[in-house]
Amino acid sequence: MGLIGFSFGIDPPGFRIRVRPKAVCHYSSTLVEKGAGLASASPRDALREGRWVKLICGASMDDVPFVETLCEIYTLAGVDCIDCAADPAVVGAVLAGIESANGILAAHNLRPTRPFVMVSVNDGEDPHFRKAVFDPLKCPADCSRPCERVCPTNAISTAGVSERLCYGCGRCLRSCPLGLIIADTYVRSPEEMIKLLQNYPIDAIEIHTLPTHVDEFATLWSSIGSWVLQELKLVAVSFPDSDDLEEEIQVRSEVLNVGDRADVIWQTDGQPMSGDVGRGMAAKSVRLAQKVLQLLETLSIPGFVQLAGGTNDATVELMQKRAIYGKAAGVAFGGFARKTTLNALQISPNHALDSAIRLLEPIKAHRNGD
Length: 370
Fold this sequence. Notes:
- The chain is of the alpha/beta class.
- It has 13 helices and twelve strands.
- The strands form three sheets. The chain has an eight-stranded parallel β-barrel, surrounded by five helices. It has a two-stranded antiparallel ribbon with strand order 4-7. It has a two-stranded antiparallel ribbon with strand order 5-6.
- The longest helix has 20 residues.
- The protein starts with 28 loop residues before the first helix and ends in a 6-residue tail after the last helix.
């Protein structure tokens, strides 16, 4: 049985991954060796053993230089999957970061690693697929600019919103006292998705869906499902909690109709794009994961459960308290991972790698029964 996913070839036409041996000097041998020790033999092993960790670059994150650095660091830390925007430039940055990390591993005589590359898509309007927009000429001269203070990526300035830096968290939308900031949402066509998947070595796809998107989910899958089941390795379905969660999962499982052709990840999106807000944001995703684990068992629906949406350095402790540590397949880190990496990079790449290793280590430790 395979995993449903987007399997990329080795080198897409016209694209060459860059190797940067000079990056070796950025990291200590001790940290590089420690990260290599956390890496699973394969992403598939990590998923089945309950020590899967995914890095979420952001479905709307277009900051290519940062994505490449982030992926280099987390590949060195032993991550199993990297989830990114379904955009050729961003996918290229992910692949370049992975390749650069492997150049560093080779320089230390350590075995190479290849996390799955996953692209995120949506079946309709979704908060993960949007950019903030406003006309800076309409801002009052005496405005205290709370939007700038709440933006986690410094995407807002007197010139407006940087499309490259904004990943759609929505915090600025609520902060503007005059309501001048709006969200520009988008949906990529099935044709765009398949073209991307055919031309790049992607291993997995994630479909973001909402409770009201039953028909939209079915329409999207009817367009790409056959190709995915024939060619790819893993499909994740990301969803929030809802009053009719049992029916939501059951209907989507029937639409996917995977059978024994692939595995599925059910991603519990507890509090979308909020892991960097505070440790308390982790609780919602943990509660939702516990609920989904029980539903899958009751309904005999196949698949793995992976936490997301508000995950941070408090997640594992809460998983242990709710007795789902080791039962859930793993955890995805997004906003928290990006924020801690950005902050640590202000000190040094070494500090950034250390912070990534410390975030992954409690989950990776499960292989020893810890």
